[in-house]
Amino acid sequence: MKNLLIMLKRILYGILIAVFTIGVSTIITLNFKFIYSYSIDKYNLVEVGKISKEMLIKDFNTLINYLQNPFIKKLQFINFPMSLNGEFHFYEVKKIFLYIYAITIIITLFFLTVFLYNKISGKSCTIYKVLNYGANSLICIIVGIVGIISINFSKAFIIFHKIFFNNDYWIFDERTDPIINVLPEDVFKLYALAIITLISLFIIGYKIYFYKKSFKKVKDYNKNLKL
């Protein structure tokens, strides 16, 4: 029974670290505004949108600020009109990002509480092991995501929307929501790749930290045996 509880705790910690890492990577990537600046040049969005790069960036920044700030109640672009359906879709996207922020903060507080409790009660705080559980969970997740995206990103993109949205408002009509012309699927692909890259860097960091701490533990143990 004890071994089962230990295994379940490891699985829980691994999942929580994985969700935390995905959340942090998503939040960081959302603020990588240079990706959109690069996309403007790569996909010739100035010509597509018929406005300057500066104005495209201003409207994109307006969108990013709206998605992250709970105090901004209404989205209004400078250069693009928007339908009620389009506005509602962006509102639903905003809710998803705010949930990501909330979940990330809750998991952070959870681990801080566990860490402080262990510290006060004199229990060992094996953070490196917890991070390793998360790294193992993330490896499984990333392999699956990369496999799906590499096969057919467009299909994965559609499936993602069908999972997270219970309507078809995400299918924009360029006549009523011309913003979609300057937010092509390729832009989202770049952001997805950035998130995957960040998560991969976290995995590497977790693994390096784990093996360094494990090696030190073994080294100290062998040293004590000699004494």
TrEMBL record:
InterPro entries with a match to the protein in the record: Lit (IPR010178)
Stretches that traverse the bilayer: 12-36, 96-117, 138-160, 190-209
A Pfam family: Lit
Domain of life: Bacteria
Keywords: Membrane, Transmembrane, Transmembrane helix
Record's protein name: TIGR01906 family membrane protein
Source organism: Clostridium gallinarum
